[in-house]
Amino acid sequence: MRSFGELVAEADAEPTEGWDFSWFEGRATEARPSWGYQRSMAERMAVASAALDIQTGGGEVLAGIAKRPPLCVATEAWPPNVAKATALLHPLGTVVVADPQEPPLPFADGAFDLVVSRHPVRAYFDEIARVLRPGGTYFAQHVGPASVFELIEFFLGPQSEESRNSRHPDRERAEAEAAGLEIVDVRTERLRMEFFDIGAVVYFLRKVIWMVPGFTSERYLPQLRELHERITTDGPFVAHSSRTLFEARKA
């Protein structure tokens, strides 16, 4: 069995660009939502004429679909991900635009008949509605309320109810309707996650940077040591992610 120091050092050295989570194989697991986001998104992409993928990450999800519309654009804010997505998506005929996560989107009104996003930091529904054509669709998988809070609270302590409910689907539904979108489908599932070693925890918190803001293994060394001992003694650390399927249509 590898030591605490070896596991942490390995996780600290691993690059974090993109949304490829294959490094976790054998080290952590997460159940998948029943609706199959990539498959469902691909079905909508196949019949669209102009589509936008917001916050595409490294472009891995968009690259994994069989058919893209004649006009396909992706946005991304983090420079390392912009470079990775460009290398992956340009050969597939998809333009990648470096764009901040905050509005406005750098596109004209009514530019797209389909807007998609997987795990946006925040959905700015006014902007989504603006760039959609009448009858156009927003289809996304959002991070739901209190996602992975077992891990967050291990490092940061108890969180407020406001923090726990900041991504509640009822709140997002109201924001979408206020922007003039008609709700087609909203549903949330909680999904079991297991971390089998402390390296998986370190890499997860380095990659998903909003979980524990400012996380470094040096800063949280005492908590990491405690969690390592807990995993070694009791087995995998269990948490639960929260995912919301969100589909809306512009009237």
From TrEMBL:
Domain Methyltransferase type: residue ranges: 52-139
GO biological process: methylation
Gene3D superfamilies per UniProt: Vaccinia Virus protein VP39
Keyword vocabulary terms for this entry: Methyltransferase, Transferase
Highest taxon, organism lineage: Bacteria
Coiled-coil segments: none
A GO molecular function held by the record: methyltransferase activity
Pfam families xrefs: Methyltransf_11 (PF08241)
Name of the protein: Class I SAM-dependent methyltransferase
